[in-house]
Amino acid sequence: MFVSTYEYSxxxxxxxxxxxxxxxxxxxxxxxxxxxITRDPKQRLLLVYAKDRYDEIMSNLSxxxxxxxxxxxxxxxxxxxxxxxxxxLSPALREYAGLKRDVSILGTGKNIEIWDRATLKAYETEHxxxxxxxxxxx
Length: 138
Description:
By secondary structure, this protein is of the alpha+beta class. The chain has one domain (2-137): Transcriptional regulator MraZ domain (Chemotaxis protein chec), CATH 3.40.1550. Helices cover 37% and strands 30% of the residues. It has six helices and eight strands; from the N terminus they run E-E-H-E-E-H-H-E-E-H-E-E-H-H. The longest helix is centred in the middle third of the chain and has 11 residues, at 51-61. It is globular and about 35 Å long.
C-alpha cells in the first residue's frame, strides 16, 4: 500500500527517485523492481503502478474497447527501478505532465501519482474543501 506525499526533483537525465518506503513495499510483496507509468486521461499527471496492479488494470481493460486499451497501452512505460530506487521518465511522459524539475509523488493506496509540484499546489488550492462522508473519517 502506497501512502503519503513526497517531494523530489528530476535530474538532468530524467531520473526520479521513488520514496524508499514504496520500493520497500514492492520488494516485500515479492514483486519485480519495475514500475508501469502512463498518462492520466483526465488530468496532467502520471499514473504509476507496481506489477500486480498493472496486471489487474490491463486485464480489466480487455473489455473496455480499443480506444481505452490504446490510450493506456500505447502511453505506458515500463520503468525498471535501479539500485538507488530511481526510475527514468521518458521525455514524452515528462512533457505530458508538465514535469520540469520539482515534483510531488503521492501514494494513493494501490497506485502512485506523479505531479508537477506547482500544478499539485494549484489543484489542492482549488479543491481545498472536499465533501467526504463522516463515516469514512470517524
